[in-house]
Specification:
Oligomer: single chain
CATH architecture: 3-Layer(aba) Sandwich
Structural class: alpha+beta
Helix content: 40-55%
CATH superfamily: NADH Oxidase
Number of domains: 1
Number of helices: 7
Distance between the termini: 36 Å
Radius of gyration: 17 Å
Strand content: 15-25%
CATH class: Alpha Beta
Number of strands: 4
Largest sheet: 4 strands, antiparallel
Length: 178
């Protein structure tokens, strides 16, 4: 079994997937990893929509990634798209944003998605975070509840190729120790 440091080091943004389907059991493991993430006031604002049925996936890509969002057309190669949504009806998050000026639900979603992508890496799956998409069209296409807001997409599948690591800034460039 690989260490967490090894998984973090191996995780890549995959933009080309094989056509091998992702097993339902593996998807459940990913969602469970995300479910176990911490959240502000333990509100667990995340809601996940797994889009793997070919017709639904094609519609989601056409509506959510079509038009001016052309750079993400490579997502068509992913056999699964996970739409990470916030449930905006949660009182704790509304109140916290008004009092603190912080959108805690976005922090919570970010932590949950990191759990998910690291679990995917452990299982030999590739992922890529997509933040540029038409959320309103996507929610309409997937017929999501009105209190849900699509925050990000994660493409998921078996990589057709694994990209080389991208350069990272040094610790000295990103940190201050006092």
């Amino acid at each position: 079994m690989k260490s967490l440091d090894e998984l973090i080091g191996e995780r890549r943004s995959v933009r080309e997937y094989s056509d091998q389907p992702v097993e339902k059991e593996k998807i459940e493991q990913l969602l469970n990893a995300a479910r176990l993430a911490p959240s502000a006031c333990n509100a667990q604002p995340w809601r996940f929509v797994v889009v793997s049925e070919p017709t639904a996936r094609a519609a989601a890509i056409k509506e959510g990634l079509g038009g001016v969002v052309v750079p993400n057309t490579w997502a068509k190669t992913a056999p699964v798209i996970i739409v990470a949504c916030s449930d905006l009806s949660l009182v704790t998050h509304k109140l916290a944003e008004r009092v603190q000026g912080v959108q805690y639900h976005l922090i919570d979603i970010g932590i949950a998605m990191e759990h998910l992508v690291l679990k995917a890496t452990e299982l030999g799956l590739g992922t890529c975070y997509i933040g540029w998409f038409n959320g309103k069209a996507l929610c309409r296409t997937l017929q999501l509840p009105s209190s849900w807001k699509a925050e990000c997409l994660i493409t998921l599948g078996y990589p057709a190729s694994v990209p080389e690591p991208t350069p990272r800034k040094s610790l000295q460039d990103i940190s201050v120790v006092r």
